[in-house]
Amino acid sequence: MSTVGSGAETVNRINVKPDLEEAPVPDGSLSLPARLYLLAWDTTRDELTDTTHVDHLVRAGALTELARRGLLLDDDGIATPADLDSDTGDAVLDGLLELVRESRPHHWHSWVPLHARVTLDAVREQLAADGYLRAEKRRALGVFPTVEYALERVAVVDALRAEARRILEGPVPVAEVSDRDAAVVTLAAAAELRTLMSRDERGRYKDRLADLAERSGAAGPVTRKAGEELRAALTRAAAPAGA
């Protein structure tokens, strides 16, 4: 760790796993919330494309992952833990699962914004620990601790985006797309993630996205119901004020 700056603001740069090569990630090695967070990075500007709604997108990805793994069930629209002691071994997912267990019942869509920053922060910490991000600890005015993140593995994000674009555009038949990959693209589309597609493209690929949405629920009725509610919540969050 090195310390940079003086006076009112001090920056501690934390270099995490500097020997990692920037290479495409093997399929399935990143959780849904981690993939969606990385897809939100604009690698041409080295910044997140929309810091307002990325937390909602990441939370929706985590909820989808838990539903796919059978750890969250659907009880008449309520996201319900399957039991009280199962876990995934993933700190981000297990943190959210514990939060759902300890909270009063909520619909799937209600969980998208509810304490979403907790899941976002957990994803960032996880990606920094794994070398995808660089964490910089700051003290504003020399008092208040904050952490800012920068992208370390640009090639990984570019590879993830290229794969998501391939799924969006075809010509791969929807039936050959995994339900997990379909979930990534349709959640990103619902959130109007500009690093993946423009608003015009969302209209152009409307039919393809509808087919991918259906495919994303292939794991069963729980993932289908959860997907519908989560995409609707993201669409509402992304809509212009007063729309």
Write up what this structure looks like:
The N and C termini lie far apart (47 Å). The strands form 3 sheets. Strands 1-2-7-8 form a 4-stranded antiparallel sheet, covered by helices on one side. A two-stranded antiparallel ribbon has the order 3-4. Residues 1-23 have low confidence and may be disordered. Strand 5 (72-75) and strand 6 (78-81) form a beta hairpin. 48% of the residues lie in helices and 15% in strands. The protein has 10 helices and 8 strands. It has 243 residues and is α+β, with helices and mostly antiparallel strands. It has one domain (2-17, 30-238): yeast vps74-n-term truncation variant domain like (yeast vps74-n-term truncation variant fold, Orthogonal Bundle).
Short note summarizing the structure:
This protein has helices spanning 32-39, 54-68, 91-102, 108-111, 116-129, 154-169, 179-190, 199-204, 206-216, 221-238; strands spanning 2-4, 10-14, 41-42, 47-48, 72-75, 78-81, 133-140, 144-151.
